[in-house]
Amino acid sequence: CKSYTLSLRPENLWLFGSGFADSDADMTPVYEKVVDWQSGKPQFEDRKILIPASSVKGAIAHRVAFHYNRIKGIFADKISPEEIEANVAESNHAVKTLFGTAKDSKTKAGRIGRVILSDVFLDDKKQIKILNHVSIDRFTGGGLEGALFNEKVLSQQASFSLEFLVMQDALEDKDIKEAWEATLQDICEGNLPLGGGVMRGHGVFTGTWEPKGDQR
């Protein structure tokens, strides 16, 4: 496997949502307790901020498809609708190669992913902000009565690292490798936000990435 490390720092507010509300807000970050084995005995630590690997991989997979199509010269205005379907989402060759495909119930065909990323746990420094929102009536341009909601987001800006392991055979195609590394660069330049609320400006990270050679 080839190892990649992203050293990232949040530029502003960010959120990986729990899907639940609390007493303060309708949208909250996701937290988890972790088990510490350093003493030789399992002990639950205080809750940690969770950055789920599944959320990060989903965003990366979409951007990999974009870059692979760009490299191959596959553009929507130059191909048929049928060809579009064959080059987006899980049908995209680079996405299938790196992230696998679900097993087809008819053909029994499927493929495991070749990118491994672990969840990231960060210390909870209680640096949060509560943002108030109101839904807009599309016809009047005014606020919808009763459609207020609050969002609890993280404001802490400590740096952290994302570690990826990629099977070597997935990067043998130079175009796939270029699309993969261009996607990592997008994250590090703040051009690929991660997490929830990205259309509201959340989840912009900047930093650097580097390959770290083969891992056995």
Number of helices: 4
Into which percent range does the helicity of residues fall? 10-25%
* CA radius of gyration: 20 Å
How many strands? 11
Strand order across the largest sheet:
6-10-1-11
Description of the structure:
- Helix content is 22%, strand content 30%.
- It is of the alpha+beta class.
- The strands form 4 sheets. It has a 4-stranded antiparallel β-sheet with strand order 6-10-1-11, covered by helices on one side. Strands 2-5-7 form a 3-stranded antiparallel β-sheet.
- A hairpin with a 6-residue loop joins strand 3 (35-36) and strand 4.
- The mean pLDDT is 92.
What is the structure about, briefly put?
By secondary structure, the chain is of the alpha+beta class.
Secondary structure layout:
Elements: E1 2-10, E2 31-32, E3 35-36, E4 43-44, E5 48-51, H1 53-72, H2 81-85, H3 93-99, E6 115-117, E7 120-123, E8 128-136, E9 143-154, E10 160-166, H4 174-188, E11 205-214
Antiparallel strand pairs: 1-10, 1-11, 2-5, 3-4, 5-7, 6-10, 8-9
Helix pairs in contact: 1-3, 1-4
Which characteristics define this entry?
216 residues, alpha+beta, four-stranded antiparallel beta sheet, three-stranded antiparallel beta sheet, 4 helices
